[in-house]
Amino acid sequence: MRHAKLDKIDKKILRDLQDDGRITNVELAKRAGISAPPCLRRVRALEEAGFIRGYHADLDGEMLGFDVTVFAFVGLVSQAEADLRQFEEMARGWPLVREAHMLQGDTDFLLKIVARDLDSYNRFLTSQLTAAPNVANVRSAIGIRASKQEYGVPIDPEVPIEDII
């Protein structure tokens, strides 16, 4: 595992960008307590080092017609590395799958799937997911509502990352 050696300013920049990816460099620098040019250099260095993977807009799926969120617990026939990678590649190619996590334990993968309605999820389930090579079983849990949705990781500039519980 790679552990970060970040100072308080870097952590403030990361925290503020994580909270608001559209913050201006001037405002970001002000919050970090530095001037704009070194702030921009730090942001670019954090991007190049891989701490910042990208920026995105947080869209309201329901407003766009995606009324159903399903968590699918997928069991595979084989857990050989090549088979795991093949499944991961398939999951990346399915637009309805928004997240895919390999798990340790009884379930091999947890997929977060969005769909317009239950019928469209069931079509995806039967025509693509359960029909995929190496898929042994799928258990679905339909989300009722999300009561918390935070992205990224907890960052407190005053606390070393390894001390966050």
Overview of this structure, please?
By secondary structure, this protein is an alpha+beta fold. It folds into two domains: about 10-55, Winged helix-like DNA-binding domain superfamily/Winged helix DNA-binding domain (Arc Repressor Mutant, subunit A), CATH 1.10.10; about 70-140, Alpha-Beta Plaits, CATH 3.30.70. About 35% of the residues lie in helices and about 20% in strands. A hairpin with a 6-residue loop joins strand 2 (about 95-100) and strand 3 (about 110-115). Helix 1 packs across helix 2 and helix 2 (about 25-30) packs across helix 3 (about 35-50). The longest helix has 14 residues, at about 35-50. It is elongated. The model has no long low-confidence stretch (mean pLDDT about 95).
Short description:
With 165 residues, this protein is α+β, with helices and mostly antiparallel strands. Helix content is 36%, strand content 18%.
What keyword list fits this structure?
single chain; 165 residues; alpha+beta; Arc Repressor Mutant, subunit A; Alpha-Beta Plaits; 4-stranded antiparallel β-sheet; 5 helices; 18% strand; elongated
